[in-house]
Amino acid sequence: MTGILAGLRIVEGSAFIAAPLGGMTLAQMGADVIRFDDIKGGLDSDRWPVTKDGKSIYWAGLNKGKRSIAVDLRSPKGRELLTALITAPGEGAGIFTTNMPARGWLSYEALSKKRADLIALNILGDRHGTANVDYTVNAITGFPMVTGAVGHSGPVNAVAPPWDLATAYAGAMALLAAERHRRLTGQGQRIVLPLQDMALAATSALGYLGEAVVNQVDRPRFGNEIFGTFGRDFRTKDGRHVMICIFSDRHVDALAAAGGFKEAFASIEQKTGQDLKTDAGRWNARAELIAVIEPWVAAHTTDEVSAALKTAGALWAPYKTFRELSTDKDAVIDNPMFTFIDQPGIGAYPVAASPLQFGAAPREAPKPAPVLGQHTDEILSGILGLPGHEIARLHDEKVVGGPNK
Q1: Which position among 164, 218, 342, 396 bears the catalytic label?
Q2: What is the CATH number of the domain that holds 44?
Q3: Are strands 400-401 and 67-71 parallel, antiparallel or unpaired?
Q4: Active-site residue 164, yes or no?
Q5: Model pLDDT for residues 354-393, shown as the tens digit of each residue
Q6: Are 266 and 304 contained in the same domain?
Q7: Mean predicted lDDT score pLDDT of the chain
Q8: Are residues 122 and 188 in the same domain?
Q9: Core vs surface per residue 142-177: b (16+ CB within 10 A) or e
């Protein structure tokens, strides 16, 4: 293995998003991440989106670059093998991450008896151990009650799973922090990361709880307008949409130059008494700003609007569908982060490597996700040291599985 995390080995027992994405994040930086699944497949092995043949593009995306071992998780011998794998010796080994119930044979107490310096990350639904997913966690954060069109009644769920994503990256960071602590002290530890607490911590950090308590308000819906400054979508002459934002003095001047709004903006300031160089001023005068910007965008094509905004250095972006994004020259096709890979059972499509660019190590190209049990034999042999005849017997007894067995 190469990459900035070469020499680190993490064993992962996971499903859905937070845990596998955290492992994939580390794998893309060079860690040897070994995912174990039941020989019949994991809970999310067929989760959508899928191909027309039912192959999970979702699963492939979250497990790029990992190794796969397939084991009968109900078998005592299978559990014994995985225990040995999790607690195998080695300076960079002895690291385990899971969002499965970490009890019984998978508990930190049981595993640390085999390796005292074990690091184990347990991602929970909430701090009580109750099952939760991004959508149930999001429900209590308040965000669904401020998302959606002005005047809409009832919650609007998020399409992207923000708390799973945040938990994945926080979990990866936690494992690296614990590994550093172990190198300095020799001590292992159990790390608990509740998905709900991740969401609540972020909600608090963004000031939403503070606003509710200090100002004694429930924020209303503002549709696609960015609260507290200026930003919203505008429709072009040819029926497309662009997002235009103002976050600084420079953005005010750039937008004014793009659309010839200098006099109009000055008139808004004089009429409203608001300073457009401040967030508050832009927010309070947003209706007047929209009245100036909207007809200009509507009178021009997307290409014309884009050229003017880009030339002026304004803060903007065109809205794209996923299909449009997949063929975007700058974002995907010519972006060195992406590589077209041929994922077994799915086909060729652009896949992102790690977005991190380290000066001391080149970025690792993305690798396909493994086929279930693809690396069973090499893991049993290379890490656990089992001879060929013993591995063959485990296959015959259906304790382990592999793609060609």
Answers
A1: 164
A2: 3.40.50.10540
A3: antiparallel
A4: yes
A5: 999 999 999 999 999 999 999 999 999 999 999 999 999 9
A6: yes
A7: 97
A8: yes
A9: bbbbbebeeeeeeeeeeeebbbbbbbbebbbebbbe
